[in-house]
Design brief:
Elements (H helix, E strand, L loop, with lengths): L7 E4 L12 E6 L5 E6 L5 E5 L6 H15 L4 H10 L5 E2 L4 H20 L5 H9 L13 H13 L1
Antiparallel strand pairs: 1-2, 1-5, 2-3, 3-4
Helix pairs in contact: 1-2
Length: 157
């Protein structure tokens, strides 16, 4: 798998209050073709999307996050609201080392799955990663998929 070059940025860190789920962190997976791994700061939910074409990456982020939320059975009204608030993405430096650690582990696990099956569907792989126990969630809901469900229940109640 080679040496991992790490690129980590926070998506929309300056305007933390615009989405209910808060900022997303992103890194590049140096596969062929390359992919972007996004991880939500609040829930640690992972989202994978093709990196190319990079010129349209920021405009595609909201759609891919919306798809992931829909796959995880988030209410349509919530998904639409989040998508509206994510129409433009801004990149900045990371502010949460815990999320960066989780993202590094997700990238390692994604590399393993991708090595086993280079044609793996990115949405299916993200769903698999979302079921991974994460130490920051041990005292709450253990895995990002469960944390998302609990967060959605708290937000939409």
């Amino acid at each position: 798998m080679g040496v991992r070059r790490r690129v980590v940025v926070a998506v929309d860190p300056a305007s933390r209050g615009t989405t209910l789920l808060g900022p997303w962190y992103a890194t590049v997976l140096f596969w062929r073709p390359r992919a972007a791994l996004l991880v939500n700061e609040m829930t640690l939910l992972p989202v994978l999307l093709p990196l190319a074409p990079t010129a349209t990456l920021t405009s595609r982020i909201a759609e891919h996050i919306s798809t992931a939320l829909t796959v995880h059975q988030a209410p349509a009204a919530f998904v639409n609201q989040e998508r509206q608030h994510m129409r433009t993405a801004q990149f900045g430096v990371t502010a949460n080392r815990s999320v960066v650690g989780v993202m590094t582990e997700f990238a390692r696990l994604a590399d393993i799955h991708h090595h086993d099956d280079p044609a793996v569907d990115l949405v299916e792989l993200a769903i698999r990663l979302a079921a991974t126990p994460c130490s920051p969630l041990y005292s709450r809901n253990i895995s990002p998929d469960r944390e998302l469900i609990a967060t959605l229940q708290a937000i939409t109640s």
